[in-house]
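Question (not urgent): is this output format expected?
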Amino acid sequence: MTKIQGKACFHEKTKTLADQIDENQIAVIAHEDIDPIAAESLIRKKVKAVINLKRSMSGDFFHEGVKRLLKHKIKIFDINSESEIGKWIHGREIEINNNYLFVIYSQKKYEVGTLKEYSMSFIRLLEERAKKNLPFTFEKFSSNSISYAEKDLIQLLDCWKKWEAGSALQDKDVLIVIRGTDYEKDLDCIKKHFINKKNPLSFVAVDGAANAMLRKGMEPDYIIGDMDSVSSSVLQCGAQLIVHQGAKGQSPGMKRVKQNKLSANTVKFIGLSEDAAIAFALKEGAKKIYLVGGHRDMEEYLSKGRKGMGSSLLIKMLAGSKIIDLKGIHHLYNKKSKIPSVFWRFRKAYHSLPFLRSSKPKKEMRELKA
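Got this back:
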């Protein structure tokens, strides 16, 4: 029988909740299909449990968010109740007892609703459903992406033509950091093995990625986005702020910039803020654009609630060979070695060939060139 008691903390946006919640509190979220980055943010805050007002895993497509929470011994429940319950129990002491949720008030317990607890066996069933749904889900996502790309093309070209070119990043290598799956692990790897004084990079953070960069001692030169997930202290770190406006000119992020008594430039561009960041690097003359944490597949876009990736397809086609995607690079590295394990296997095979034995291997792997 499961029995968990603690203080509830609710916010409609999981990334905002993760910044506000304290250790050992119970996270109350409204997040359909919890993506890995949201799960990791809750794991990092060491929440006691998670209660979701929506389906944590629908089975419509595959994702690892719920599985990651369970692997860290964080129990997760969906609640069968009205969505307004999140605001009502926020800040109150609650209890999870035998798949029922109670709120504790004046030393009395009041039943709030029934809970559905996730288990690894239940997740396996949902993963099987996702596999069966894959052809249909992929067809729908692909069709949406192509349809959106066709509709977005005119607006993208219009934004591109009106965007005056600059030279702030002329012939420079640029590292754009986005809050995507395992981006912090990739960032740690890149910082350790590739970035040095001989190979300087210009740093561009997309929204909340700036928070992680500052924690790791990597000060962004630019922060671009709607500024909704950047902490106030990070906004004042000295980076040049660029508020991403939608194609119609809306820029809710400017209000937050002004609230912090700061100034910012604006860029009008269609799509995600990471698309605008790539466009910014291109317009300012970047030589190479290294992406960390960028969204690139169906799973990630669906987890963000986006039914297609039209604008992202377009901007990456426009950038072409200037983009080097470093997503997942941490998988290549052993914990005890500075050189990827696949490199060691390649080197061993390389020297086993008779006609290559006389060749002298290079002492070090090449780093990113300035």
